[in-house]
Amino acid sequence: MGLDDLYQEIILDHYRKPRHPGRLEGAQVEVRHYNPVCGDELLVGLRLDGGRVAAVAVEGKGCSISQAAASVMSEQVLGRPLPEALDQAEAFRRLMHGEGEPDEELLGDGIAFKGVARYPVRVKCALLGWMAFKDAAARAAGGQGGGDTVYGEEQDETAVRAARGEAREGR
Amino acid sequence: MTQSTTPLDEAAVRGDFPILERRVNGRPLVYLDSAATSQKPRQVLDAMDDYYRRHNANVHRGVHTLAEEATHLFEEARGKVARFVGASERATVFTKNVSEAINLVAYAWGLRNLRQGDEILVTEMEHHSNLVPWQLVASLTGARVRAVPVTGDYLLDLEALDGLLGERTRMVAVSAMSNVLGTVNPVAEIAGRAHGVGALVLADAAQAVPHAGVRLDTLGVDFLGFTGHKALGPMGVGVLAAREELLEGMEPFLGGGEMIRDVEIDRSTWNDIPWRFEAGTPNVAEAVGLGAAVDYLQALGMDRVRAHEADVTGYALKRLGEIEGLVVYGPSEVEHRGGMVSFTLGDIHPHDVAQVLDSDGIAVRAGHHCAKPLLRRLGVQATTRASFYLYSTTEEVDALVAGLDKVRRFFA
User: Which one of A23, A113, B190, B310 is CB 3.0 to 4.6 Å from B1, fit for a cystine?
Assistant: First the structure.
């Protein structure tokens, strides 16, 4: 396992030049997710419009994997219908846990993180941005405010399912 | 350090540690994580192997030959450890690690003696293992945990200590050597002041016993805890050394076999110390291994071990100081610190630093080092820590410096 398998050039590129950095002006919700073990921290701002991700931004600090994965997330979900963006989140989660064949169409640049799955301690770093997105999406679709969340993989899946439902109804 | 001692024979010492022959990711292992756990010399491995191959039996209960041999080896190890840390054999208790040693004091002494409004004084540079047991007992007794602050020079604020010590102070629990900063704390001085207000003193010597050979008697503390695996011994054995009369007056911590004198259905009487605090079958082979580790360290001489580490640490401070953007957290004087250097490198996250170093076979620790209040105080989420021991070399420091240059180029 070489270093280049873990830190693919796409990852380093997103780390050096995050795609949608900073606070989101006019955010519908902002959520802060952090991993107290390593100190990775992300503030994800999100706005939905007509069931689509109208705007997203990420302000963060932490390791290259966490920051690059959040940048890729922002690029992947922007402009997508919410259910599709949540499918992307699921595809990335499955990639990190080595479940099934990777869906490269849904993953986009996220496929670059395939090597991370072999470093168990870094998987949490890669998932942080997507978890924050799912949380933000559920809150936005449910008309709730933002919040702080310590990393935990038992994310409120009920809320995510509700978000899918409400997004389909065009909220 | 003192130059009156002859330096360690580096090659001979390294030859005693089989794991140092390993290659990691195609490169010779550069093990710079001894503050997390030390590697083990073959003398320790052999002692444990010999115990299981030739002497294994349960201790303190059999009349057969093996049981007597096992008991003898176990108690012989206790004697070695007791002499090493300046405690009596009767007041040297085997635990599973230093966390259990501190929990023992927190529960067996603290739970029965602390009252509402009493204060337990810790410091901002404690490992979680010297914070959480006190928090648990404080929550059960109504006592309060307060902390001596750390100065900008990464030392304990001794002026503040005087303000914090008072008649409410019942226990002062202090690290003898910080596992993050490397700071060697003036525990004897602190113990003198704490005793002046009638408080007891516990030294968390997880780093200070293996690297500085601190002792209960010379520190003048009431309790001293350390763990075997950071001192060339195996995992699974730790030690609580105490002032005998204090331990004598304490009720048990854990109940079970071995720690009793007589048992009825609804009541029991307790065994003598130290066995009163050793419920259940102990980790005999591990204790024997720790005894062999103590023999090994004493044969070399703790002053020579400390001098060697000081040389390597001084060299590391100098070389790391030359790296642009690298910030060291800890005292700048080698006299005030043990064999470890915590640092950050620009805004590169320590996990990334450690990952790239690992690709060259260099093992360092990255994270909060189980000292979150200290890292909060330092204003950092995590640091990278390189830590040394008697087998560490300046060539390994050179490898670390070259590795850090690679890290910088990689993330530039």
Answer: B310
Which ipTM value was assigned to this complex?
Answer: 0.84
User: Over chain A (171 residues), what is each successive 10-residue block's mean pLDDT?
Assistant: 84 95 94 87 95 96 95 97 96 94 92 92 93 94 79 60 62 45
How close is the nearest chain B Cα to the Cα of A159, in Å? 30
Query: Closest-CA residue in chain A for B371?
Result: A37
CB-CB contact of B133 with B94 (8 Å): no
Name the pTM for this structure.
0.92
Q: What count of other Cβ atoms lies within 10 Å of the Cβ of residue B181? A: 30
Are the Cβ atoms of A3 and B359 closer than 8 angstroms? yes
Which residues, at least 6 apart from B249, have a Cβ–Cβ distance to it below 8 Å? none
> What positions of B carry a catalytic annotation?
370
Token pair of B250 as six digits: 């304490």
Question: Quick check: B381 contacting A, CB < 8 Å?
Answer: yes
Whether chain A has a CB inside 8 Å of the CB on B367: the answer is yes
- Whether A121 has its CB under 8 Å from any CB of chain B: the answer is yes
CA distance A96 to chain B (A): 18
Pick the CATH number of A3-168 from 3.30.360.10, 3.40.50.980, 3.40.50.1000, 3.90.1010.10: 3.90.1010.10
Q: Which of A12, A63, A119 is the closest to B349 by Cβ?
A: A63
| Residue with the two structure tokens 């204090």 | B246
Residue of B348, B352, B381 with shortest CB distance to A39: B381
CATH of B10-40+301-411, one of 3.30.465.10, 3.40.190.10, 3.90.1150.10, 3.40.50.150: 3.90.1150.10
What pLDDT is recorded for position A143?
83
pLDDT digit string, tens, across residues B216-250: 999 999 999 999 999 999 999 999 999 999 999 99
The C-alpha angle with vertex B197 and arms to B196 and B203, in degrees rounded to 5, equals 75
pLDDT digits (tens, 9 = 90+) for B43-53: 999 999 999 99
* Structure token digits, residue B136: 């648990």
